[in-house]
Structure formats: C-alpha cells, structure tokens
Input
Amino acid sequence: MNRVTKTLLIALSISILIHLLIFGVTPELEWPDFEMKNPAIEARIVVPPKPVHFKPLAPPKPKGSPKAPDAHPATKNTPLAASAPLAASAPLAESAPQPVAKSAPQPAEKPAAKTAGKKTEVSMHAKLVFRVFRGKDLNVGIATHTWDIMEDGRYVITNKVEAIGIFALFVSKTITQVSEGHVTENGLRPDIYTITRGGVENQQSAHFDWEAMKLVLASGGSSREVDLEPSTQDQLSFLYQFAYTPPESGIFSFIATDGRKLDTYEYRILGEETILAGTQKIRTLHLKKLHDSGVESTEIWLDEDHYYWPVQVEMADKNGEVMRQVISDIEEK
Output
C-alpha cells in the first residue's frame, strides 16, 4: 500500500470512527481508539447481504393463570393488558426531571403486539444484528444485540459494535455495552450498566441502588454518587423498555444514564412509517429526539409488529454527517 493510499484510508477511517454509532441515543457518540496495523490487503468478491427474515409474532402465553369458568364458550380470552405507557409531557428542565406518570391500562381488545406489558408476552431470548452505515450506503460496521430474560425475572441485554471490511484494518478494539437488572410490572429496572472500549481499563459503569435511590457512576478509577430518579433507564435498556411501555403520541420524556451522567431526554412521535431493511418492509413507529439547533439529532424507528424493538437508528452530527444502523436479522429462541 503506497503512502498516498494509506493516508487517504486513515483519514476516511478517522472520519467514520468519529461518527460511528453505538445504539445509545444520548448526545455522546462512542467508538474505540484504533491501532494501526499493516497486514496485506486481500481483494475478494463479497456476496450481497441476505434479506431480513423475521419470525411471526407469537401470541402471548401467560403462565400460571388459573382458568376461570366460562359462561360463554364462544367468547375468546382477551390478551393481557399493557403496562402504563410513557406519558406525553411538555419539555422538562434537566435540573428537575420528573418521574414517568402512570396512565390507565390499555383496552383489552388491543392487539397483543401493541400492548406488550408482561414479560411473558416478549421473547425470552433473541439476537438482533444491525448493519452500520455512513452516509447512504457505506457499510462500515456491525452491531449485535442479545436479549435474555431468565426464569427468575432477571434480564441481560448486550450490545457489541465492531468495524468490518477494510475499516477493521485500522480498528483493533470493539465497544461492548451490558445492561443487567430485573423485569418488573412496569418493565425494565436496571441494576448495573457498563460500557467497555477495548478493555476493562477503559470502562464506565452505573450502579443503581433502588432502596437508597442513589446512582453510583464510576470511570477511570473514580466514582461519584447522584440521586436516582424513579423509572431511570440506562443507555441500552431504554431502547427495549418500549416493549413494556410503548409510546403513544405527542412528546414524551425519560431519564437515562450513559455511565458518566444522568440526563432527561425528550422525543416526539412522528407517526407510523414503513421502512425497507434489505428486501423486508417493516411497519414502524418513528421517533425523533428534540434538540437545539447546531447539535446532534437522533431518530429511532420501532417495529410495531415486533415488541416495539428498535430496527433503525439514524444520527446526524452538527456538520450533517449521517450514520445509520439498520436491522439485518432477528433470531428468537
């Protein structure tokens, strides 16, 4: 590789790494430091990516519910009602975040996919794979999410982001996020969140003490304690909290930590939208983060027929550089 080609590749990689997303929709974009390598370049023909395949949404199967006498045999049982959705609210000041308000249960006749409010209605184990793009169609990385709910009600969500192709020549580290906690009647309640960039020496964490209502943020060998607000999520769990409290309309807010600080975020629901992932059409609910002009913008598309799981995220920085993560495969167990 001559010096000019190497210089151009390094410049392009640095630009992409600065903007490459993980699935955290806080203002900070994270990507590991890179180390230069000098392997031989191997040209090869890449087979086009396979289409997205989704398994049909199975009806909920509540466990342990006694069968009540049925006076009308022809009447079908209605699905479980949802937990209270996030309430629409006016913008909140960061200095005084408000807890999420509870609302009345959803009507029983609503489809189960839209009223996911019990852990038995959501798949217990799944893997979601996303392709990461810079601009319109430059595939620079892969993000892999795993979702596991244990029989005792604990959950573990992970997200691993890594560069692919020629960009992997200049990136030797990955980013790994882990959120662990419990599934409650109101959805996910995180206990610990970590984000690791390469190794444990580059790790940040957030420990949730729900009894004392304190959040301990640790990074670089130091830690600090802040007040913990009700319904607080972390940078990873909030994406999957929608499975338990799907947004409805207007503007809603939530509180989340990225391991460094605690902030309130506000999103506007733009409405339903069908997106194309590979050859698969997906019916989604489109959300957009409210932000000041001249700062990063974030948009999220939630799959309305698949537990409101995220299937696309798009972020544009203040210079207009766009990064997208688009679902390529979902495996449920």
